[in-house]
Amino acid sequence: MERQMDFDRVSRESLIHHLRDALPLSARPRPALLAFLRARGAIGRSAPRLVVVDIFDAGGAQGLMCRFEIAGETDASSFVAQLTQLALDRRHPLAQRLAERRRRAQRTGAA
């Protein structure tokens, strides 16, 4: 079990490293984040393009987090959300790696 936890930690750290190397990343909000941004008045009716500017591991149930900005906004405010609340372009190699990580987490019941 300890060996599996070490592998998971190393895998997570490797993913964070690769994501940081690819920054800034273009993404779009998933439905829950889109609703949150609309409720806060941060966006209008259309789904905005987001720009991920940082990735970090919050640990525990929070897991991988990101700081993002709304593309095209002159105001430099940024937001923080779980990385799972954003969708990267499916053609991006890291998007495929994240999707596999989500599937594995759902099978094991982990975050």
Question: How are the secondary structure elements laid out?
Answer:
Blueprint: H1 2-21, E1 25-29, H2 31-39, E2 50-57, E3 64-70, E4 78-82, E5 86-88, H3 93-108
Antiparallel strand pairs: 1-2, 1-5, 2-3, 3-4
Largest sheet composition:
5 strands, antiparallel
Tell me the span between the first and last alpha carbons.
17 Å
Proportion in β-strands:
25-35%
Strand sequence of the main sheet, in spatial order? 4-3-2-1-5
Helix content: 40-55%
What is the H/E order?
Answer: HEHEEEEH
Please count the beta strands (DSSP E, at least 2 residues each).
5
- Overall pLDDT level: 84
| Radius of gyration, CA atoms, in whole angstroms | 15 Å
- The poorly predicted ranges are none
Shape: globular
Give an overview in words.
By secondary structure, the chain is an alpha+beta fold. It has one domain. The protein contains three helices and five strands. It has helices spanning 2-21, 31-39, 93-108, and strands spanning 25-29, 50-57, 64-70, 78-82, 86-88. It has a five-stranded antiparallel beta sheet. A hairpin with a 6-residue loop joins strand 2 (50-57) and strand 3. The longest helix is centred in the first third of the chain and has 20 residues, at 2-21. The protein starts with a helix and ends with a helix.
